[in-house]
Amino acid sequence: MLLRIHPENPQPQRIQTVVECLLGGGVIIYPTDTVYGLGCDIFQQKAVERIAAIKSLNPKKAQLSFVCHDLSDLSIYTKSIPTPLYRMLKQYLPGPYTFVLPASKQVPKILKSKKDTIGLRVPDHNITHALLEQLRHPILSASLPGEIAEELTDPEMIYEKFKSQVDLVIDGGMGGIIPSTVVDCTQDEPIVLRQGLGSWNG
After folding, report:
1. Domain 2-194 has CATH 3.30.420.10
2. What is the pLDDT of residues 17-52, one digit of tens each?
3. Residues facing 183 on adjacent strands
4. How far is Cα 198 from Cα 131, in angstroms, rounded to an integer?
């Protein structure tokens, strides 16, 4: 199913359709403030396994991240955040960044990496924001398989390519081509693991 949602003013009824799909164990492709990504409810294990299969990855080894509604949501899924780190996160979020942080006990076991860390995002995107507001917990997020190319910015082309593997593709307009900047915050000093759309001077 290809569902058009207005990128500036998401229609509540259509957002509800996507949320029902997620709660029912569905896998979606949705827009963020960077690129289109694969998403599912973090508590639907079969959906998590489906995303891992689409990416040909073991869930524990995959680079999967949680897309959170805001910083207080984010703080549930990581261990206590020291004040300086919280200030830094507040400075950069919402925005095109993924922060790697120690995972809390709230993170489902299937999603914890061997290092017991999790990538956390708070995108600056109206559709994503509206989904998270109604869902009331994070969406598991992963990049689409393959190289990020022009065809992965066009929702109609994305739909044609992945319609047999996912339940719903949101058409929220053209997507970007540059992924989020990934910053590891598990050491004393933050380390940029991938330079993406977000500029970094931390």
Report:
1. no
2. 999 999 999 999 999 999 999 999 999 999 999 999
3. 99, 192
4. 23
